[in-house]
Amino acid sequence: MKAIHELTGKRALSNGLTILSGAHGCGKTIFSQQYVYEILQSGGKVLWITTEELPSTLREGMKAFGWDITHFEDQNKFMIYDSVSPARLGFSENIGQGMLGLDPTSMLIVITEQLRGPDGGMRVEENFHIVLDSVSRLLLACDPKVVIDFVSCLNSRMENAKVKGFATVSEEVHEEKLLNSLIFSSSGTIRFRVKEENERRVRQFRVETMHGRAHDETWKNYEITNLGLDISI
Fold it and tell me: Where are the beta strands (DSSP E) in 28-112?
């Protein structure tokens, strides 16, 4: 959160969906986990839609970095909606909690219900965040045009509700035209890359687009440590 705060003129992410784009394994999911854990610690609420990792894998992965979400789940502050295990295991690990199919239309309906306030209108809750990890699984499993429409609609509803969030995408498995459509349908883009320098792997990210918001576009180095991402600002 501190890094994003510095890179967006001491403000924050734009309302809506910010695309986290980069090669598989570059740290997009870890970045999301670390960010939302800090949101939870500050009193916020998170809805995490997993299309690639089993809920148990997500919990164990976060706990390995020291981000134990057990009590946040108990308080209904961290909600996992599972789109993975019904397809892989034939049942959901989240029975009695949240379960979704790999269907953008049903996802939009369920997420929209979470965005509604007690009066039926769109909530105005500054510290509510949504994570979709990842949209790549949807693009590979569904009609890409339907997925783009889903992202566009979700982004608009999140903007209207003043809710922020991330959708991760593995850019090496999609055509550039499709990625550009995804970025066009969102509120911003944070791009990750890994390059070789002097026989050493260097990880970098930058805030590439942020609609309606001044931001620092320079590449920033980061390392993945036992405590999460260590970002050089």
Answer: 45-50, 78-82
Residue pLDDT tens, the chain, 233 long = 888 888 887 777 889 999 999 998 899 999 999 999 999 999 999 999 999 888 899 999 999 999 999 999 999 899 998 888 665 555 555 544 555 667 888 889 888 888 886 666 666 666 899 999 999 999 998 899 999 999 999 999 999 988 999 999 999 889 999 999 999 999 999 999 998 888 788 999 999 988 877 888 999 999 999 999 999 88
pTM recorded for the entire structure: 0.90
- The CATH number fitting domain 2-231, selected from 3.40.50.300, 2.60.120.10, 3.30.420.10, 3.30.70.20: 3.40.50.300
Each domain of the chain, given as residue ranges in start order, spans 2-231
* Structure letter (DSSP) for residue 123: P
End-to-end CA distance of the chain: 12
